Amino acid sequence: MQALKKTKQEVVAEFRSAEILEAARRVFARKGFEGASVDEIAEAAGLAKGTVYVYFHSKRELYLAALKQGLAALMTETGRNMDAAPTAAEKIRAFMSTRIRYAEAHRDFFALYQAEFGNIHPACLGRVFKNLYQQQLQAVETALDQGLADHEIRSVPRDAAAFMVCEMTRAWIGRRLLGWSRATADEDVDFLFDLIWKGLAAGSGRARPGDVSWIVH
């Protein structure tokens, strides 16, 4: 079935919405939710304030839309890279690497992400963001299930292990965004993966994806 062609109005609306969200990420990242204003976002987007309100009814709605858009793109890229990795070790490494590199390329978005999830506790999150957070945990848990089935990792509480992987990756991104790391992205991924995988791997020795010497069958 042929996809319906978008109308000119729909194309313009999508473009305008994307412009506004990009401007919103920049302003919110710099000033925070409380410090930012719709006037500043409109100015950053080169639009009238009234035009912004045509697409987003409040500053809170705009903030959540900017955050959700970035999260959706991040999760899509993370899922694609994890799916392409054949082993549990490579999937966990892909999770870390994708997110660290995405943060480097989208610092405005990750400033919002860190602010929203900085004091994370699932009970304190809104329903939408709790669901999004659960989705990333489930992606890691699925990789851990594969590792257990393949005897690649030792028996560990999968929910706790997945939480550790997600939170340590997020913390490492925060460290880089604060300028506390002088390492390259590759070096930080190597260190973080090695640190975490040594606690998960069924064998001993330095953990490296593809190095079967430390996998116990």
What does this structure look like?
This protein has two domains: 1-57, Homeodomain-like (Arc Repressor Mutant, subunit A, Orthogonal Bundle), CATH 1.10.10; 67-214, Tetracycline Repressor, domain 2, CATH 1.10.357.10. The chain is 72% helix and 0% strand. The chain has 217 residues and is mostly helical. Residues 119-124 and 204-217 have low confidence and may be disordered.
- What series of H and E elements makes up the topology? HHHHHHHHH
| Basic shape | elongated
**Total domain modules:** 2
- Name the poorly predicted regions: 119-124, 204-217
Compute the average pLDDT: 83
Cα separation of the termini: 48 Å
Number of strands: 0
Outline the secondary-structure elements.
Blueprint: H1 8-35, H2 38-45, H3 49-55, H4 59-84, H5 88-105, H6 107-117, H7 127-149, H8 158-177, H9 185-200
Could you give a short description of this structure?
With about 220 residues, the chain is mainly alpha-helical.
Provide keyphrases for this structure:
disordered C terminus; Arc Repressor Mutant, subunit A; Tetracycline Repressor, domain 2; mainly alpha; 9 helices; 217 residues; 2 domains
